[in-house]
Design goal:
Number of helices: 1
Shape: globular
Largest sheet: 7 strands, mixed
Structural class: mainly beta
Strand content: over 45%
């Protein structure tokens, strides 16, 4: 089996570590995630961010459940964004899986 092709899936927590590494090195990554709908308590529309960079996480006192959220900047718009980690479905073109 050829090893030159990246696997099609990546463990979600491995992906998050990779996002942090890329961001620390000054790079960006793409992610796709579902918006969380508070009213229906359900994953909603898919959002694709082409060039994201992890930003410092708020403490749990500031934002409830922040340890389950990914804090990032959309470098194309300059907007600070947040998404729920379990709702991330893709990282740099690879589907994320929760083990």
């Amino acid at each position: 089996m050829a090893m030159d092709k990246e696997p099609q899936t990546i463990d979600l927590f491995q992906a998050i570590e990779e996002m942090k590494r890329i961001s620390l090195a000054g790079g960006t990554f793409s992610i796709k995630f579902r918006k969380w709908n508070r009213q229906t308590r359900n994953g909603g529309d898919l959002v694709r961010i082409n060039a994201a960079r992890v930003r410092p996480k708020a403490s749990d006192e500031e934002i409830s459940g922040s340890s389950y959220k990914l804090f990032f900047t959309d470098t194309e718009t300059g907007l600070a964004r947040v998404c729920w980690q379990p709702l991330i479905v893709e990282f740099n073109g690879r589907r994320t899986i929760l083990n």
